[in-house]
Amino acid sequence: MKIEEKFNQKLLVEGNDDQHVIWSICDKNKVTESFDIIDCGSDSQLLRQLSRRIRFNADKVKAIGILLDADTSLQKRWNEIKKQVKDLGYALPDVPDANGTIIESSSYYPRLGIWLMPDNLQSSGMLEDFAKVLIPEQDELLMEVEQVLIKIETAPRKAIYKDIHKAKALIHTWLAWQEDPGTPMSLAITKSYLNHNHELAIRFVTWLNALFNPTTNNQ
Length: 219
What we know:
The protein has helices spanning 16-28, 43-56, 74-85, 127-133, 140-154, 166-176, 185-190, 199-212, 214-217, and strands at residues 9-13, 36-39, 63-69, 101-103, 111-117. By secondary structure, it is an alpha/beta fold. A five-stranded mixed beta sheet has the order 2-1-3-5-4, with helices on both faces. Strand 4 (101-103) and strand 5 form a beta hairpin. The protein has two domains: 9-123 and 197-217, 3-Layer(aba) Sandwich (Rossmann fold); 127-190, no CATH class. It is globular, with a radius of gyration of 18 Å. Helix 5 packs across helix 6 (166-176).
């Protein structure tokens, strides 16, 4: 279902899971609703949309944020973004800001924000790595899940998931063992299975507010 766009600020995300997780984080942390969260369908489609939205909507859009998984290489992903915006007047640093990057354009293009999942620091990772960090400390089920995954990975047969997807296997197994089994990540935040007050979540929310609600954020 296509969500109607109603704001002059946009946060582009890779997919439906990202969209709903961010909605839940914003709701739990009372982030002012001032931007659309747009499911682009994939990382490649997001990057294609980015340039188009900046070029053809500059007079209508005040700020654009992008949320991308680092996947297998944070630096490779960062270089892909730099390539997309190099001709648009944005001066991106050599590496992303650990607290989320925000660039003021030297031209008439909108403010640009970039967050690489999970934390702008890990050399690889994705949304599920972000969610894993939000599991409460000393959670007993987490230790059980980790032991199960170790057993699977060291068995004579190979585990069916790739190393890059280990966090995905972990978080969804952990969610399958909750009071409401199989709760989606977004609803797990709403139900407080995942900690929306974790330092990483607060750092992410601070970046969102600095990008989309700078006046409110500075009050």
